[in-house]
Amino acid sequence: MFFCAISGEPPQEPVVSVKSNKVYERRLIVKYINENGTDPITGDKLEESDLIDIKASPETVAPRPPNLTSIPALLQTLHNEYDALVLESFALKQQYNSTRQELSYALYAQDAASRVVARLIRERDAAREALANVQATMGIAPAAPASEDVEMDEDTPSEGLPKEIVARIDETHQALSAVRKKRKAPEGYSTAAEIKTYTAKHTIPSLHSASPSGITSLAVSRSSPNHFLTGGNDKIVQLYDRSTDKVLASLKGHTKKVNQVAFRQKEGEPTLLLSAGADKIAKVWAHDEASDEYIPKLTIRSHKGDVTGLAVHPTSTLLALSSVDKTYSVHDLSTFQQVYRSAPSDEPFTSLSIHPDGTLLALGTSTSTIQIYDVRIGAIAASLTPPDAVPFNIHTLSFSENGFHLAAPSSHSTVAVWDLRKQKASTNIDLGDDFKVNKVVYDVSAQFLGVAGNTGGRVFMYKSWDELVRFEEGGEMNDFVFGDMGKEIWGVTGREVRIWSLPA
After folding, report:
1. What is the rounded distance in angstroms from the CA atom of residue 339 to the CA atom of residue 127?
2. Residue 206 β-bridge partners
3. Per-residue H/E/C for 291-315
């Protein structure tokens, strides 16, 4: 008679393992192999083909031994089982008490280590403060090493931008505004007739984590059109190369979802990757030639609430941020220093956009109002509010490249085009009651307006505001980007980045 090495009972379908020469019930050993892939006795790799059937005679299972056929014998067996359970319970209690004592020791050790670390941090801060005092006495300005991540903590509101920054902004404004009126769409730029024919050409799936899933923001590189940057609900910023279908960098540093991402690309200087999140911080990464990786260069902690807006100034040397703490800030990307932080407004800021000439800053609020600031002096230049609007968050804004218009939601399902010269809405685009606006964006030629929402994306023609095309393949679209020369349109749907262009 055979006995199964797993159950200890006579097997109904006995097999023997060639690895351990032990007998098993086929049903039990097959299940064990599927779950573990090894022999339960020796631990060697085992497959179902390594099992040999045993032809037993007789094939029926032997009857129970006589000592289990009477009631007294059964009662004795149950009594023995009970005694075994009591002994096992006692052993488990002993093991539990031992584990509890070990955990208590570990917690005491962790608490002691935390106290030591806290003391060392206090001593470090005291040493830094003493060093700063000595440097101040000697007239030496402390500087952070270029390879380290600079921490920019909360600061008090500034009086105004430094004079050299204002001069830089004025110089850029004069250079850009002088040619803006004469500027025409570049030769070869996509036309309305071409955009009407755009179809889905490429999809990059399964970006970022599946839980929590979803891409929140998208930026496409102008200098390397195959590279794009995404921020997600999984707190990660990803740099992706479409030509090789590879993730070039997965940047961690945020502790909550990423709200905005952007590239800073300036000729003669390294490309910077920028991000802002719901964890109240913004981060700047730069490529390190030695390690061939992107490393953090700056962490901005100036704000006390979610950072909702991020934009690179036309000078390419300044970064603007907005926050629900009712302030906005400006940071110098050359020195990695904060150069301005506004006094608190009456309303939280929920979005941000910079005028293409660089002198104006538009900030959306949670009460349907758009506040436009002169970035040079930090004063409100205009305030725009849709008439009879029910208060809602203006979470997206876009200045037209012509410098005269600003697009923004005027309700959850309509988009207003504001004429900045008259400070009133010249057009109101109704997208339907079932549409919810997620993003509005002008293309660089000022000919087209893109709108992303819960049913997909749409493109409208400037002035006539005729709808040219809809992109509804992926469902809800969270972000919308016009590609180089308008030859492609990029959109974010869930964990996917989709690209539309001319049919083949």
Report:
1. 27
2. none
3. CCEEEEEEEECCCCCCEEEEEECCC
